[in-house]
TrEMBL record:
A Pfam family matched in the record: PGM_PMM_III
Keyword Transferase included in the entry's annotation: no
Domain Alpha-D-phosphohexomutase alpha/beta/alpha: 44-182, 205-305, 317-436
Domain of life: Bacteria
Protein name: Phospho-sugar mutase
Protein family (similarity comment): Belongs to the phosphohexose mutase family.
SUPFAM superfamilies, per database record: Phosphoglucomutase, C-terminal domain, Phosphoglucomutase, first 3 domains
Keywords: Isomerase, Magnesium, Metal-binding, Phosphoprotein
Length: 568
């Protein structure tokens, strides 16, 4: 008997329920390959939580893997807050089994004597982040797999500051989880400790979102928005927030308004994918709308389409929306007068344009590893600093610090404010973006994401990244290599002089090449999906807006050339 089979058979004891044991018996008899996929490893509780395919097995999302994580977290809360009445808040999204799994998680917490506030229906991730501090909780959990395919679910953990767990809590929680067995899970709920919540927290969150995202833009009365929740949670928040901010012409894509974990109208509920917003863009053309907004299932990412110079709807990428949102917020703060402690933030694989903008405005620029938890950590680590806004290339943005994670609800309102204000001035969202390129440099990015599933896929990703590191490029499109940034070793090396300096960030499996002309190529494995990602950024001067189309075409061709050169 091999180790995988032995692990599977350990789930045949009386502790596990009848359906689980029956399914394992069937796999043992009829499908050894599937059994191996499900039991060859433990689904890792990473530095923010868990995400994986639902089903029976140690490498799957189910009541036992989530129960074990919850038991470990309960033990940690008891150890770190022995004199407190521990409290947690739980939210869940539209995915299959999210409501059931959320209830099980609530029961395990309650079985350990921890008070639980459980949203009575699905809610957005940003509202969960907000609720942690609003309710004075020690931790928060959201059951979501973001924009992963329908067969996935997940479990994200938030700490008392409303941000995702970061060092040292993450490692300490993981150690607690790894120290227990499945049989240590306490499923004996104390139902009197589970309290359902909804309207009070909703009202507070809506009010805070409007307060942070509404800038009394002119032109709202004739600004037309088409909105799609892509079958997710944002339907519970965004229409109401837009209404309260004064937007009267919001058309909702009804075919996608009902929460549905099968995501029946899209191949992927990911607003980064143009196909996901196809129905909304079609409706926008019919109505002559100014903007399309779509969000992912848990409403922390947003995709925006606006009219380009030819009047056609064009989906912007996360870097583009981040740049214009940040500039708008900087302008608002500048009008009031900078206090000298402001900062903006982004991640190491996002556009370098954010740093150029910070320099131009004289505010501090901070950069973090990929993942919004690191931006949230900045706010906690620098309490005397004022976070204006920031985001990452993967369509996430955070306005101020009232939510400590990416927030598609408030960001949607902010985007509409920018566009309505621009329209009232005879401009547009797109033209304002071009003006940014003129002021700060025209930076253009491209993401190449390769999916590699299963055991063999994981090995393939590992080999691709090894090859990328072991065989560094000498030049890119005729520009010589200047720097190699290796976040695994925390070293930046100038390959021309041999000079090295230390990267003051936690170690991470990321490698970045930078050439003499400022072209950057980053490679990293996804932390949440079976993918390897390559991020390419290049730039050029844009002397005047009238030159945008020609320079854009030149940069587009350069990005395609780099992709070809790297055999991606």
């Amino acid at each position: 008997m091999d180790a995988t089979e032995a692990t599977a058979k350990s789930w045949l004891t009386d502790f596990f329920d009848k359906d689980t044991k029956s399914e394992i018996q069937d796999l043992l008899k009829n499908n050894p390959e599937e059994l191996k996929e499900r039991f060859y490893k433990n689904l890792e509780f990473g530095t923010g939580g868990m995400r994986g395919v639902m089903g029976v097995g140690t490498n799957r999302i189910n009541k036992y893997t989530l129960g074990k994580s919850t038991q470990g977290l309960s033990n940690y809360l008891k150890k770190t807050h022995p004199n407190d009445d521990q409290k947690v808040v739980i939210a869940y999204d539209c995915r299959h089994n999210s409501d059931t799994l959320a209830q099980i998680v609530a029961e395990v917490f309650s079985a350990n004597g921890i008070t639980v506030y459980l949203f009575s229906e699905l809610r957005t991730t940003p509202e969960l982040s907000f609720a942690v501090r609003y309710l004075g909780c020690h931790a928060g959990i959201v059951l979501t797999a973001s924009h992963n395919p329908p067969e996935y679910n997940g479990y994200k953990v938030y700490w008392s500051d409303g941000g995702q767990i970061v060092p040292p809590q993450d490692g300490e929680i993981i150690a607690e989880i790894n120290a227990i067995s499945f049989e240590d899970i306490n499923f004996n709920a104390q139902n009197n400790l589970i309290h359902h919540i909804d309207k009070e927290v909703d009202e507070a969150f809506f009010e805070a979102s409007v307060q942070n995202g509404n800038f009394n833009a002119k032109g709202k009365d004739n600004f037309k928005i088409v909105f799609t929740s892509l079958h997710g949670t944002s339907i519970t928040a965004i229409p109401e927030v837009l209404k309260r901010a004064g937007y009267k012409h919001v058309s909702i894509i009804e075919e996608q308004a009902k929460p549905d974990g099968s995501f029946p109208t899209v191949a992927s509920p990911n607003p980064e994918e143009p196909a996901a917003l196809a129905l909304a863009i079609k409706k926008a053309e019919e109505l002559g709308a100014d903007m399309v907004v779509g969000t992912d299932p848990d409403s922390d990412r947003l995709g925006i389409a606006v009219r380009n110079l030819d009047g056609d709807m064009e989906l912007l990428n996360g870097n583009q929306t981040m740049v214009l949102m940040t500039k708008f917020l900087l302008d608002q703060h500048k009008q009031k007068g900078f206090q000298g402690n402001e900062f903006i933030a982004t991640t190491i694989v996002s556009t370098p344009m954010m740093e150029q903008m910070a320099k131009a405005y004289g505010v501090e620029f901070k950069t973090a590893l990929t993942g919004f938890k690191w931006i949230g950590k900045m706010i906690k680590d620098f309490p005397d600093s004022n976070f204006i806004g920031g985001g990452e290339e993967s369509f996430g943005y955070m306005v101020g610090d009232f939510v400590r994670d990416k927030d598609a609800v408030t960001s949607t309102l902010l985007a509409c404010e920018i566009a309505a204000d621009a329209k009232a001035k005879g401009s547009s969202f797109y033209e304002e973006l071009i003006d940014c390129y003129v002021q700060f440099g025209f930076y253009k990015e491209k993401l190449i994401s390769l999916t590699k599933k299963g055991i063999s896929g994981a090995e393939e990703i590992k080999q691709m990244l090894k090859d990328f590191k072991d065989n560094p490029v000498k030049s890119v499109q005729g520009s010589n290599l200047l720097y190699i940034e290796d976040y695994n070793t925390s070293v930046v090396k100038n390959v021309q002089t041999g000079e090295e300096r230390t990267i003051d960030l936690p170690k991470s499996n990321v490698l970045i090449y930078e050439t003499e002309d400022g072209t950057r190529i980053a490679a990293r494995p996804s932390g949440t999906e079976p993918k390897v990602k390559f991020y390419i950024s290049t730039n050029a001067e844009l002397e005047k807006a009238e030159d945008f189309k020609s320079v854009n075409s030149r940069l587009e061709a350069k990005l395609d050339g780099i992709q070809s050169e790297l055999n991606l």
